[in-house]
Structure formats: structure tokens, C-alpha cells
Amino acid sequence: MVSNWVRRVLSPVVQFRESELATGLMMFAYSFLAMTAYNVVKPITRSKFISSLGADTLPYVQLAAGLLIGVLMQGYSVLVARLPRRYVAPLTLAGMSALLVGFWFLFRTAGDWVSVAFYLMGLILGLLLISQFWTLANDIYDARQAKRVFGFIGGGSSLGGMTGAGLTALVVSRLGTENLLLCSAAILLLCAGLVTLIARREAAAGRGGAGRGMPPSASASSSAASASRQSTGAEAARRERRRDSVTIAATGSSGSTSSTSNTRAWPRSANALRRRPAASI
Length: 281
Hints:
By secondary structure, the chain is mainly α. It has helices at 2-10, 21-53, 58-81, 85-109, 113-140, 143-175, 177-201, 216-275.
């Protein structure tokens, strides 16, 4: 009853099927919370860096960050390939949350190098949050579902970006800059819990990791569906070959019939000519 009401309310925006509603809402919440957490941290990374080292050194750090992030993301890709995909996103989100708590402690004790490390961590956080969200979405939805659903669940990130920036401007004077890191860490933990629920609910989540991320039931259903598609394709190919053979046989039969009739017609013409009087010829 409630699900039907929610679907009717959302029908001008997105057309959810009955089985897609819960996962779609959780994916929207995941994108919203992830971008809220990132946009709480993003202005702090730059402000901390500029206050510690000045704005003149920022371009050099950005150049070094591009090289370092390329190496780190390559290593991350290798690590992800060896782990079940349905565990990668929750573990990464929990690890990022723990890093934010660690930086909260470091800002109270350490020196200027913390601002540089925190700036690099903010860049990596933005890349991971976006890539992991769309990787999970591609694992869950097929092409037809994506046309209906991706606009809605992706809209959560835009709303989360506005919410995070507005939340930072609203409460930074009351809580302090460092304490906002704890708020972002708590939001990332909520994201980790949501991704875990989504991965358990959806049998298709984690399919990209060569089947290592799927539970046995999902793997069996995927194999059965693949075998069904193969058998359907083979049956269609056999029907096509039979149709072609019937067409060829019909064409051959027509050609042989016409040649036989022509062969029979020639002797009759020759006999008629032989029976005519010589004068008429």
C-alpha cells in the first residue's frame, strides 16, 4: 500500500517497478549522503591548505597530486580486482570515515604537512565516491532500467552537493572547522551501511568481479539465464537455417519444373515442323 503511494508520488519524475522501489530510494539516499559528506569536506581541504602554506604553492601541489592520484588509483584498481565487488564500496567508505577521524586528531597535534595530506585525501575522496556509486549502479541495473532510473538516483548527488555546501556555511561558525570532519565521517558511515543493504538486497550487485561478488543463488540464476539465452539463440538459428533450406528447395524445384517443361516443348515443336508440307515451309 505504502509502496504504491510512493510510486504514484514519484511517477512524474521516475517510473519505478514494484521490485525496484526500495533499491532505487536507497541508491538516491546513497548518492545524496555521499555528495553531502564530500561537500562538507571539500571547502575545508582548500582553506586548511591555504592557511598553512599559502595560495602560491597550491598549483605545484595540484600537479603532484595528479601524478600521485594516478598511481594510487592504479593500485586501487588492482586491489579491487582481487576482492568481491560487493565488499569494496562499504570497506572503502568505512576506511575514508576512519581517515577523517584520524585527520581530526592530527589537526590538533601535528604541523603543516597535515594540510597537504588532507588536501590530497579530499581529491581522492571525490574520485572514489563518484566512481564507486556509478559502478554499483551499473552492477544493479541493466540498460533498460538505467534509462528510467539513472536520472533520479543521480539527482541525489546534485541535491547532496547543495546540502553539503549549505550545511558547512550554516554550522561552521558554531561547530568549528575540525569538528565538521566528524560530521562528514558519520555521514560516510551511513553510506557504508546503505551500500551493504543494497548489496544484500540486489542479487546483481557485485557481478563485475568475475562472479566473486555474487552469492551462490545469484550466480546460479545468472548461469541459468545465460544458458536460456544461448538455447533461445540456437533455436532461432536452427529455424533460420530451416527457412533458408526450404527457400532454396522451392527455388530449385521451380527451376527444374520450368526446365522440364521447356525440354518437353522442344520435341513437340520439332515434330510439328516435320509434319508440315514442304510447300508451307
